[in-house]
Design goal:
Length: 391
């Protein structure tokens, strides 16, 4: 589960990772104004109004703004609530006392899946897109792998100090950053996180080192080990994608993506492979949809109807490997579904393989539906679907 910023900061706070003074979680303009009044009244020279959505780049999108007066806070409240940040609509805003930034760094802990250990990433060039820094100036990003045997008693302080030193953090920030990293590592492990990222980690004007932002992902498979795990779920955090909401209601395994090739397959593994082959052919998948074991006319019609409701979809790639589900059933399901759906513009490229695939392909050929294009292989189907989507 991904936490939003204020939750990540709460979690950091529990483990002694320094964060800004506590703020207020708000859902309305009035609540934001009230919080700003209180915090400014308590001596903060400014407050920062921050959109709480599960995506990065909020600052660039206008979702993070400083206010030194209550009126300014009100203006920001009005512009940030309801703002769409990369498809995430802001329903919750966090208002906290603003920090004075002298410098911005980057620090994160994650799993190193290949080495079955941990990976600490640190850079003196934080605040900005770290992937970009890594591309343009890879030497500025220190990646330090750790085996479990090296951290049986936690991350040794010397190691932490070595990492922040090699990352070129200035001398006056190193000791504090190293202490913070040791604690961040404890937080990461004890909370069963899969990612704990701080961007920016800042040095304040008065020389403190604190986490100004947080991005934390917790491992849902470890939820049973944590009392109160479910309390991280926030009601109404973001407006849910309408098509995903509909899929949920209809019991369809569907994830909306950004491309133009609708994808429909049986079995999650095959659907993922289908996304890959669409990408290899230069296309962009519009969704992930697993019709599951059955591919009855009903299921096929409901699934196709959902995929075709996405206005970005220009073609659909139906990729079925017959096992228990036989080829002729799938073919009949597709033809029956097209009848039920009535008129639609997009072409459906159908690749059938496995049990009774020949029979299925014959049914598709005979039906001779103008929008149904049988394909012999997965590769041919992908190429055709991508071509149709970009035509
Ligand atoms: P993100 O854009 O989603 O990563 O959001 P961040 O929380 O990282 O904020 C983006 C940027 O806003 C930071 O890199 C800072 O430059 C700035 N910012 C955020 N909070 C404060 C604050 O308390 N004081 C000041 N001066 N700037 C801030
Ligand atoms: Mn950030």
């Amino acid at each position: 589960m991904d936490l939003v910023e204020f939750q990540g900061k709460q979690l950091f706070g529990r483990h002694g990772v320094p964060v800004p003074p506590p703020g207020a979680v708000c859902r309305t303009v009035d609540e934001i104004v009230e919080a700003a009044e209180r915090l400014l009244g308590d001596g903060a020279s400014a407050v920062v109004v921050k959109a709480q959505v599960k995506t990065g780049g909020r600052g660039k999108a206008g979702g993070v703004k400083l206010a030194s007066t209550v009126d300014e806070a009100r203006e920001h409240a009005e512009s940030i609530l309801g703002l769409d940040i990369k498809g995430h609509v802001v329903n919750i805003v966090y208002v906290e006392p603003a920090s004075d930034i002298a410098e911005e760094y980057y620090l994160s802990v994650m799993h190193d899946r290949v080495a079955k250990g941990y990976l600490v990433i640190c850079s003196a060039e934080g605040g900005v897109d770290i992937e970009e820094v890594n591309r343009t100036n890879p030497d500025a990003v220190i990646k330090h792998s750790l085996l479990p045997s090296e951290v049986t008693d936690g991350l040794p302080r010397e190691t932490a100090l070595d990492i922040v030193t090699r990352a070129n953090l200035p001398e006056d920030a190193r000791e504090k950053a190293a202490d913070l990293l040791v604690r961040l590592f404890v937080a990461f492990r004890e909370e069963d996180a899969t990612l704990a990222e701080i961007n920016p980690l800042i040095k304040t004007d008065d020389g403190r080192v604190i986490a100004l932002d947080s991005k934390v992902t917790l491992d849902g498979s470890a939820a049973f080990r944590h009392d109160g795990y479910q309390e991280w779920t926030i009601e109404g955090l973001e407006a849910i994608e309408p098509l995903e909401a509909r899929a949920q209601a209809e019991g369809i395994q569907y994830v909306k993506l950004d491309g133009s090739v609708g994808v429909l397959g049986n079995g999650a593994g095959l659907v993922m492979a289908t996304l890959d082959v669409v990408a290899q052919n230069g296309g962009h998948a519009a969704n992930f949809l697993d019709v599951g074991g059955g591919a009855s006319a009903d299921e096929m019609a409901a699934s196709l109807d959902l995929v075709l409701s996405d206005e970005k979809v220009k073609s659909v790639f139906i990729n079925i490997f017959g096992g228990i589900t036989r080829g002729e059933e799938v073919a009949n399901g597709v033809i029956e579904a097209t009848k039920r759906l009535g008129d639609f513009e997009q072409k459906l490229v159908v690749r059938l393989d496995g049990t009774n695939a020949d029979e299925g392909r014959r049914i598709l050929e005979e039906a001779d539906h103008p929008n149904v294009i049988p394909a012999a292989t997965m590769q041919q189907a992908a190429a055709e679907a991508v071509r149709l989507a970009s035509a």
